[in-house]
Amino acid sequence: MRKRISQAAAHALGVVALLSFTASGQINTATVTGGVTDATHAIIPDAQIKITSEGMGVVKTTSTNAEGRYSFTFLLPGTYDLSAQAKGFGTFERKGLSVQAAQVVSLDCELEVGAATQAVTVAGQAQVLNLESSHQVGTVTNVEVTELPQARLDWASLMSLGTGMSNLGTSVASSGTIMMNGLSPTSMSITVDGTNGSAFPEAPAFGFYNQPNIINTINEDAISEVSVVKGIVPASVGGTVSGNVNIITKSGGNQFHGSLYEMNDVAAYNARNQFLTKKPGSTLNQYGGSLGGPVLKDKLFFFGSYEGVRFTQLANITGQAPTPYLLSISPKSYAENLALYPKVPQQRRKYSRAWRLFPFSRQSAYGPLHPIHALQINSQAGDRQPSDV
Question: What pLDDT shows up at residue 1?
Answer without folding.
Answer: 47
